[in-house]
Structure formats: C-alpha cells, structure tokens
Design brief:
Oligomer: heterodimer
Number of strands of chain A: 17
Strand content of chain A: 5-15%
Largest interface: A-B, 146 and 122 residues
Order of helices and strands of chain B: HHHHHHHHHHHH
Shape of chain A: globular
Helix content of chain A: 55-70%
Largest sheet of chain B: none
Number of strands of chain B: 0
Largest sheet of chain A: 7 strands, mixed
Distance between the termini of chain A: 52 Å
Number of helices of chain A: 28
Distance between the termini of chain B: 38 Å
C-alpha cells in the first residue's frame, strides 16, 4: 500500500511542474463546448501563422471567472489574454488588470460598429476589441406560426387560438435583463449615463404593467427560468420565445423554427430593443509577452479569426466583414438558416449595456421590483420606489478614508500590555511549574496548533481585518469602524426596516431554531424507530435515510427549488392531485421561508439521526433491564432512562448543528434566493451578496462575517454556561 | 405485558413511518436522476419522478470529456478529486489524532482556550478568508498544485476532527493504556498500540468527514486551480451552469457521478458511522 501512495505523491508533484516553452500565451475563457470549439479553431489558425508559439486555452468556470481574474492577474498566475463581457471592463480598468490595446489602424476600426468599439473603451482609452455580441431575439415555431408575428399585441392575441397547452410566448419575464427590452421600447432606461437610477416614471410603470398583463392573461407562463424557456419552446409548447443564440444548441433537431428581431410594441409605437453585451478580448496587465498577446487579440477579433469562430462555433461575431455577402438579402455561407444573421441585426438595433459599475447593481433591485409586481398586488410605482431605495443603498458612496494611526497605536498598546502580563505571568513560579508539566501534552498538540493557526486562524484574522476597509474588489481604503456603524444603524433606514441587520438577524435566529428543532425531532424519532430490537430491514432503512447527506447539497437544493415551482413543480402537482389549490411558494415570506426550511431539514436530519443512533447504542442495556424488572412501562423507560441519557450526549452535536445552520448559505441562496424581496435572506447570505453580487465589497462582507462570529461566539458561551449551571444544580 | 398486544399493529406503524421517511428522503434525489436520464423532456407538472424516455447521453457526455490532446479529462479530474480528498483525510487525521488524544488525556496550560478556539473556527463564515488564503498559497508557490488544496482542506477539517476524536478517546477507558504502560510501553506506544485500535470506528468516521469536506468543496478549488487538468469534479460540474445557458441535464448527471463514491463510502462505513459518532457525542 505504502509504495503506491508514494508513487501517487510523486506523480502529483510532477504534475504541478509543467515545462515552460519559450513563447507561450495563456488564454482564459468561460465558453461552453460549441463556442469553445470555434475559439480553438481560430487559435489553431493563429498558431499556424506563428510557428513556435503555443496558445494555451484555459476554461475557467463562469461562477469563479471574475474573482479569479482579480486575484490571479496581480499575482502573476493569470492569463495573458482573456475574454469577458464589456460591462466588467470598468471594474478591471479601475483595478489595473488590463492594458490598453494600443493604436488600431483605420481598417481595423472600420471593422466594428462605433458603439461596440466604444463599449470597450474607458475614458477614451481602448482596452479591448469586440469579439462576439450577446443579445436576445425572437424564436418563432414555424409549424405553429408560418409567418412571424410583428408585434407583441399580435402575440398576445394568439392566446386561445393555439392548440391546447401551447403558450403564445415564453421568456424570462422576471429577469430585468429581458424586461429591459420592453422598457427601452417605452423609451425608458434602467440607469442613466451617470449611473443613477432611472427605472421609474411612466416608461417603467407601463413596462411593469405590460409584463403583469401578459402573465395574468396567460400569454407567458409564470416563474419562467432559462431552462423552462428552452424546454417549452423545444417541445413545441410555446409558439414564440425570447432568448439569445445560446438557446439554439439545446433545441431538438426536428423542431422547425426561425429567428427574427424582437417584435414591436404597438402601444409604445416602437420595437423592443434588447440589451447587447459586447464580449471583448483583453490583454492582461501582467502579460508575459505583451506584443504576442496583442497580436493574438487582434487576430481573434479580426476578419479571419471571426469567420472561423462564426463558422465553427456558431458565434454572433462582432466583426463586420464575415457577414458581408454579395447580395444584401443573402446570408453568409456559415449561416444557412439565417439565424445568426438575425441575431447580428438584433445586436445592431439593441442597446449596449452601460459600462458604468452601477449597471450590475441595478439588475437585482429591478428584478425584485418586477417579481413583486408580478406576484403581489403592489402598484408598480411603489415597487419602483422601493427598488430605487435598494439600488441607492448598494451604490451609496463609500465612507471617507481615515488615518490608521489611532487604531495602530491602540493595537500597539494592547500588544504591549499583553506582552507585559505574559512576562509577569511567566515569572510566577507556579505558572512555570504547570507550564513545565504541560510540555508532554504540547508534543502532541504542537503541529495541530501550528497548522490550524497558520492556515485557518490567520486567514480568518486577516479577513476580519478587511472589515475595516471599504472599496470595490482589491481597490480598498481604510475606513475604521465605518462599515460596522453602517450595518448597525441599518444604513440610515429604520432599525427593523427592510433588509436591516436586525430584521435579518431575527430571520436568521428563527431559521436556526426551527431547523435545529426539526433536525433533532425527526432525527431522534427515526433513530428511536430504527433502534427497536428485531426491526426488519434495519440496514436498508438506515442506508436510504442517510442518502440526503451523501448527495452534494448544491445539487439537491436546486432539485428542491424545481419542486417548488409554481406551475411545473412536483409539490404543487401533489397538492393539485390532492384537490388543493397550488401555492405560489416564493411570493410570500411565510411560504418561501417554509420552502427553505423544508429543504434544509431534509438535508440535515440524517446527521442527527446517526448521532442519536450512536448515542442510543451507548446507553447501557442493563439500565433498561433493571427498569423492566422494577415494572416500568415503555413510556416510563423512555422518559426516565432514554431522555436523560440522550440529552448530554446530543448537546455538543446540537451546538455544532446550530452553528452550521446559522451559517447555511447554500440553501437560502439556491432555493429562495432571498425571495420574496430579500426577506428570507439570512446574515451569511447577505454577506455573500455584498461580496459577490454587489461589486465585490469585501470589506462590508467581512464586517458581516465578524458580526456573525461575535453573535455566535457569545450566544454559545452564554448557553454553554447556562447548560453547565443546570447540570451543576441537578 | 400490555405491550405484546397489538405488537403487530405497532410493528406495521413503525414500518409505515420509516417507509414515509424513506420516500421523502429519496423523492428529490429521484428528480435529479430523472433530469439526468431524460434529455429534452417537456416540462409538465408531475407527481411521480418517472422519466418518459431513457437516455444515458448526459452521462456519456460528462464522463467522456477529453481535452485537445485526447487526454481523458474526466478521468484526470476524477483522479484529482479522489487523490485530494483521500490525502486530505489522511493528513487531517494525522494532525488531529495526537492533538485530540492530548485534549482527552492531559491537562495543560491553554487547554480551555484550545477547546473554545475549536468551536470558534466553525463560527466564522468562510467568505472573508478566501482572498487571504489565496495570497498565502501564492506566497508559498502552491497555486495550481494539489498540495496547496490538500493543505487547506486538511487544516480546515482539523478542528472538527479534533472535536470528534476527543469525544471518542474520552469514551475509551484509561485502564487499557495504563495496563499497557505497566507492562513497559511508553505513553506514545500505548497510544498507538492500544488507544488507536480501540478508536477505529471513530477514526473511520472522522476520515469520512474530512474526505467529504474536500470532495464537495468548489469555491476554493475553483479559485486555486487554473488548469483544467487540475480541477476537481465539483469545479467541473460548474461548467454546465454558465452565464447564458445552463445545462441541467448534464449538471444532474455529473452530480450523480460525483455522489456515487460518497454513497459507496457511506454504505461501506455505515456500521462504523453509528459506532464512531457514539464516542464523539460524549465529548
């Protein structure tokens, strides 16, 4: 066994040291398989033109893409060239992660539309070149609708005229990204040029009213997500769908459909104009071979690279020349169906997303307002006013920079006092004696203390210290306790107002208490049943009941979310089969919270069950025998022997379980996502939102983390002391 | 002897309750399986998670991934996951076991503080530690290495492992090792030869916990690893959930593939699981 392990270790070490060739360019992307294939073809052509150059394509999962770039480029582990959406350029440029692409010749400038090129510039400096355009268009099922509808009104009028069970239109009606197309038709915007909130007034209200009307009239299904859009359209259950080119890959081959520009909105007198994302290719600030990296970027975005990506990767490329054909009505050879051409036209008519850093922070408040209007009876104007408030909350100006002298002096003094008291204590002969007696124990503990101290406690301490800083990404400045003051005063709002620290804390406490109560209740009950002597099928039961624990929770949590879907979820199907009304689970706080709790109880009861089984096995059998001899009945034996013996043995598991539940971020994030309106958020998911969906405000997130730690630390100590006290008097 | 009467009825009720629990436990998992084996299924509200058509395409796609040179990527990544998780378990146990033994058997200066620190490490949300850890790994030159990930996972698992093993050691009578020491064994010898074998179930369970920590983690793995050939399986799964399109069928298939080894471990260790935690909970 041992030689095998050693071999593995050697292999693992060898695998880490890759030989470096003279000219290597590292290229990062987050493309799916089809697009990646087109990229590979283009890169291959570049390599043939540049013998001796090796381009290494690295696929990085999208979820970690931005944060990886931010941490890897400054430390020299990053790419030389990478692809990303133009909206993130502002953040990258501010953090100094990208370098200017340099002078472009006139021919190259003419290759792109001015807006697309302009989207990849910051303060007149061109940082990247447009690679591909991502935008939405209208998919039309040509079996159901031989001629594509011209207007939204025409689509709405299809209701009742289509075969049973077919929706006139399916799109992600709750997503602010898709709804913005409608907003643009009415002449509105999500944010203005200066990054201020603009999603209000008549255009916004009419947009919300239109979406509500479409949903209520049964033109579009409720709670649609991207997957549902693909499935409904792909199975012929929707006559039209709004979606991007990325949907096409998942549609069955035998479906006959076409793609056209988004329809007009007659009432607004204009066409829907989708957001356009311009994917750019950038040269990283720390590129090892900047000249070569630049050449690669120019090649990929240029005519030859673009043609290859369009032909093989079926990408809607930004460059103009691949699209030019002899006659205007024709489509290029790589696009026989004309689908890509339709998307390319839609992109020209669309509106490039704002590069302002506030753009990304506008989607969440806007989406919450949309959902509120769709699911509740809130007037659009009120929901929009709340959304503005929320947007201003997350984009509020950062606290001013402060001088760190005072805290440094304080820290210095504290360290001095600690050092003096340590020295004084060390002089105490009694203490020296007990220290000497501890030496054998330290031999067993030292390496664990060292490892945990260095790799667990030190990073946490550094993380805690970032709570004294404010800023976006790695661009931070010292602000003292301003983050804490901000959180603890509910950012100037009502103390128990929406999203305030105290309200979220209340939800978190309720969440923890309910979950732990159910975990213990169900876990102990099942363990008692399993522990019955002579139970048949004990082994199979035990294994099957442990399963929720064995499957990764990020998967099962998503499965639960699907089960709670309003129209297609299994829970409502069961309710309807039983004759009950279906429930819109994420529309009210109570049901959304219940959905979260149900998921987490399901995930957590096996642990308590197993712990209880272990504890039950440890209760001496003779206790029961003695009790039986004394004539105690089953209930008395349970109350007088099982319960008192179980309690102290379960206590540590309950404490540990409470701490874990308090910080159970996965379930809240994946199941309700804070719906409705952020009200089911718990403290830790709030911290994650500040770190990951609100422009990387790590300092603010760290302040939340420290507060969570403080609350848990003191409450477990207080509870621990009370439990000990009770044990002492009993 | 009133309990004998209606014994059959009680037995039936017990089985009914357990069967209900099993159905609830399996139901969401069956949906994951349905999603994985039925590509392009039309969405309709259904009570029973039974796929209308079967196909293993999703599994074939996930498990069959290769890179440009034709290397079997999934195999490499499976090896990464197995190697990193197993090494995490071994390293975590090696660090935690002696410490837990000392916490159980010795009195020493700082013991109370250590106990409190162990619990405290479980309370701090990890969101704040990822970036400092990255910088530290970078300083040590361990970015993009399995060693770095193993070190981080193993140390994160140590506090809970100590907590658990300490409880197990507390449950082992001291007479055992004292007898060995009377027979001439050193304290360390008695620990290795007498206490450790007696704590085998608890060691197995602690191993399983550390293994699972590493097996299911993806945030740190995605941050520390740049090469696809270095990814672990949970990171690979994320590739099916992109910015614009999410391929839930492939995601579900991957999730099942990821769960199978853990399920096998659970099955294999299930008897130890109960015994191993029995000691721990006395802590």
């Amino acid at each position: 066994m041992r030689p095998v392990l050693a071999l593995f270790a050697v292999l693992a070490l060898l695998g880490t040291a890759a030989p470096a060739t003279a000219q290597e360019v590292v290229f990062w992307h987050h493309y799916g398989d089809a697009e990646a294939e087109g990229l590979r073809a283009a890169v291959g052509a570049f390599e043939r033109e540049h013998p001796g150059v090796d381009v290494r394509l690295v696929h990085t999962p999208f979820g970690a893409y931005a944060s990886k770039l931010e941490s890897a480029i400054p430390t020299g582990h990053g790419p030389d060239v990478f692809i990303d959406a133009h909206e993130r350029l502002g953040t990258y440029a501010r953090a100094g992660l990208v370098q200017p692409i340099g002078e472009l010749g006139l021919a190259l400038r003419l290759e792109y539309e001015p807006e697309h090129l302009g989207a990849l510039a910051v303060d007149e400096v061109q940082y990247g070149l447009p690679v591909a355009l991502k935008t939405a268009a209208l998919y039309v099922n040509t079996d159901l609708l031989p001629t594509p509808p011209d207007s939204l009104e025409e689509i709405a009028a299809l209701r009742g005229r289509l075969p049973e069970g077919v929706w006139p239109l399916v799109f992600e009606a709750e997503s602010s990204y898709y709804d913005a197309a409608l907003l643009h038709a009415w002449g509105g915007r999500l944010i203005d040029e200066d990054g201020a909130w603009a999603f209000e007034g008549e255009a916004a209200e009419r947009t919300l009213a239109t979406i509500r009307e479409l949903t209520r009239a049964g033109v579009v299904p409720e709670e649609p997500n991207g997957d549902l859009v693909t499935q409904l359209f792909g199975s012929g259950q929707a006559a039209t769908a709004i979606g991007g080119p990325w949907i096409a890959g998942d549609l069955p081959d035998d479906l006959s459909y076409t793609v056209v520009a988004l329809p007009r909105v007659e009432a607004a007198g204009a066409a829907m104009r989708p957001y356009v994302t311009i994917e750019g290719v950038f040269v990283a600030a720390e590129a090892r071979e900047p000249e070569l990296a630049r050449e690669l970027a120019l090649f990929l975005a240029g005519s030859d690279g673009s043609t290859l990506r369009a032909r093989i990767g079926q990408q809607v490329v930004a460059a103009r020349s691949p699209w030019q054909t002899e006659r205007a009505a024709e489509t290029p050879a790589f696009d026989p169906s004309g689908r890509l051409t339709a998307f390319r036209r839609a992109a020209s008519d669309g509106i490039p997303m704002s590069t302002h850093a506030n753009m990304r922070m506008a989607f969440e408040p806007a989406m919450r307002a949309i959902r509120k209007v769709l699911r509740g009876d809130v007037a659009p104007a009120n929901a929009l006013a709340e959304a503005r408030h929320r947007f201003e909350d997350v984009t509020r100006p950062l606290p001013p920079e402060r001088s760190p002298t005072v805290p440094l002096v304080v820290v210095g003094l504290v360290l001095l006092i600690v050092a003096i008291s340590a020295v004084r204590r060390a002089r105490d002969p009694q203490f020296r004696e007990s220290l000497r007696a501890s030496v054998p124990a330290y031999r067993y503990v030292a390496h664990a203390a060292l490892a945990v101290g260095l790799l667990v406690i030190a990073p946490l301490a550094v993380g805690a210290a970032t709570s004294l800083f404010a800023g976006y990404g790695t661009d931070m400045h010292y602000v003292g306790l301003a983050n804490y003051a901000d959180i603890l005063t509910a950012r100037g709002g009502e103390l128990l107002g929406h999203g305030s620290f105290y309200l979220v804390l209340l939800v978190t406490v309720l969440w923890t208490l309910l979950n732990v109560a159910f975990h213990v209740g169900i876990g102990v009950a099942l363990a008692l049943l399993l522990n019955r002597p002579g139970l048949l099928l004990k082994g199979p039961y035990r294994v099957l009941l442990i399963l929720p624990w064995a499957v990764p929770s990020y998967v099962t949590a998503l499965s639960w979310k699907g089960m709670f879907h309003r129209q297609f979820g299994a829970i409502n199907a069961i309710l309807e089969a039983a004759g009950a009304e279906p429930v819109s689970w994420f529309a009210q706080w109570s049901t959304a919270f219940a959905a979260n709790v149900a998921t987490n109880v399901w995930l957590g009861f096996p642990f308590m069950m197993v712990v209880t089984l272990g504890a039950l096995a440890a209760i001496p059998k003779d206790l029961y025998e003695a009790a039986a001899v004394d004539g105690a009945n089953a209930w008395q034996r349970f109350r007088l022997i099982t319960v008192p013996n179980l309690k102290p043995m379960l206590a540590p598991a309950v404490v540990m379980g409470s701490v874990w539940t308090f910080n159970m971020f996965n379930v809240v994030f994946l199941v309700s996502g804070g719906e409705p309106d952020g009200s089911t958020e718990i403290l830790v998911s709030e911290a994650y939102r500040w770190a990951f969906t609100r422009s990387a405000q790590y300092g603010y997130a760290a302040a939340y983390a420290v507060l969570i730690f403080g609350i848990l630390f003191f409450s477990t100590r207080v509870i621990g002391r009370r439990v000990e006290g009770m044990g002492g008097t009993a | 002897m009133s309990e004998r009467r209606g014994g059959l009825l009680v037995e039936l009720l017990v089985h009914l309750a357990l069967l209900t629990a099993v159905v609830v436990a399996l139901y969401p998992i069956l949906w994951v399986i349905t999603l994985a084996v039925s590509p392009g299924e039309a969405p309709e509200p259904r009570v029973l998670p039974i796929p209308s058509e079967w196909s293993l395409d999703n599994f074939r796609e996930v498990a069959g991934r290769t890179d440009d040179d034709g290397t079997w990527l999934f195999g490499v990544q499976l090896f990464n996951s197995l190697f990193i998780s197993a090494a995490t378990a071994v390293v975590a146990i090696a660090i935690a076991t002696p410490a837990a033994y000392a916490m159980s058997r010795f009195d020493f200066v700082g013991k109370a503080g250590a106990t409190r620190t162990i619990l405290a490490t479980q309370m701090f949300p990890g969101v704040a530690a990822a970036i400092p850890l990255y910088l530290m790994m970078d300083f040590l030159g361990l970015i993009d290495t399995r060693t770095g990930l193993i070190l981080v996972y193993a140390t994160t698992s140590v506090p809970f492992a100590v907590f658990q093993l300490r409880g197990a050691f507390d449950g082992i009578p001291r007479d055992l090792e004292e007898a060995a020491m009377v027979d001439g064994a050193t304290r360390f010898g008695a620990f290795v030869r007498v206490v450790l074998p007696a704590a085998r179930p608890a060691l197995a369970v602690t191993c399983l916990f550390a293994f699972m920590t590493a097996w299911n983690e993806f945030i740190l793995a995605a941050t520390f690893m740049n090469e696809e050939a270095m990814f672990t399986l949970p990171v690979v799964l994320q590739r099916y959930v992109g910015e614009y399109e999410s391929r839930w069928g492939a995601f579900a298939a991957g999730a099942i593939l990821v769960s199978v080894p853990v399920m096998a471990l659970f099955y294999w260790l299930q008897r130890h699981l109960v015994g191993g935690l029995a000691g721990a909970v006395k802590g």
